[in-house]
Design goal:
Number of strands: 0
Low-confidence stretches: none
Number of domains: 2
Distance between the termini: 49 Å
CATH superfamily of the largest domain: MFS general substrate transporter like domains
Largest sheet: none
Structural class: mainly alpha
Oligomer: single chain
Helix content: over 70%
Radius of gyration: 21 Å
Strand content: under 5%
Length: 268
């Protein structure tokens, strides 16, 4: 649903500034059409906030006892996931924050074309996201998430290497699809590797790291673009994703070795 609404929202978002420019008798050089388009997003979002007010907790229900419940808080495991998520968002955020700006200021695409390009690329997510359970059933959520991280980094490279809207479109579509695959698999993985009582802690820490990563990417990206251009920030974003993938691969390898040791050592 996120991918589907991203497609619709991006398509409409590309058309709204022209519509509001016509209604207000201004042009796209003015900030008024864009400001009104943002207010339109607020209005569209409002019913969702109202619906959330009607949500009620139905009770936790019965669940099987988790043998890991007596374990102490997995500080080390959570710390590794925090690092992986922070690096991931430093890379991903560097692209999503400045991609529209790149299309506008560097490639000089009109607003309608930018909206159309972003929305069409979202189709890749609509197709890719439902495949996650199928892939994860075969590879496991961990390896599926790792593949998504690596694919995100690879998809960014065309944006950095070739200054044209065609490779930019391909790279954006590839990164969008890989992100949806990675995000869905990662959510399953990080909640499965800790005891039930620590799932809220793990989820909160992971989301905190993601938000900090997005903030960091927005901060460093502006300075780097001014100093060295969009190519530099896209290359750095790909680098962050590859380092994140390397860190996550290390975690998977460590867990695999631990599992093998448990299988070798006979039960007492």
């Amino acid at each position: 649903m996120i991918s589907l609404t991203t497609f619709v929202g991006s398509l409409c978002g590309g058309l709204l500034p022209n519509l509001f420019a016509h209604v207000t008798s201004t042009n796209l050089e003015s900030s008024i059409p864009y400001g009104l388009a943002l207010w339109a997003a607020v209005v569209i979002l409002s019913p969702g906030l109202i619906l959330l007010a009607f949500f009620r907790e139905t009770g936790k229900g019965e669940r099987k006892a988790d043998p890991r419940e007596i374990a102490r808080i997995p500080v080390g495991l959570i710390a590794v996931i925090v690092v992986v998520r922070f690096l991931r968002e430093c890379g991903y955020g560097g692209v999503i924050t400045f991609f529209n700006v790149y299309l506008d200021t560097s490639l000089h695409l009109p607003t309608t074309s930018i909206g159309l390009l972003v929305s069409v690329a979202a189709i890749a997510s609509i197709v890719c996201t439902p495949l996650m359970p199928v892939i994860a059933r075969r590879w496991g959520a961990g390896r599926t998430s790792l593949f998504g991280l690596i694919a995100m980094g690879v998809a960014i490279l065309p944006l950095a290497i070739v200054r044209s809207w065609q490779p930019a479109s391909i790279g954006w579509a590839g990164m969008t699809a890989a992100n949806s695959l990675n995000e869905a698999a990662m959510q399953v993985f990080i909640l499965d590797i800790v005891a039930t009582r620590y799932r809220a802690l793990m989820s909160g820490a992971a989301n905190m790291a993601s938000t900090l990563g997005l903030a960091a990417s927005a901060l460093y990206g502006g300075y780097i673009i001014r100093a060295a251009g969009f190519r530099a920030v896209f290359l750095l974003s790909a680098g962050f994703l590859f380092v994140s993938a390397g860190s996550f691969a290390g975690l998977l390898g460590m867990r695999r070795r631990t599992q093998k040791l448990r299988e070798v050592v006979p039960a007492q």
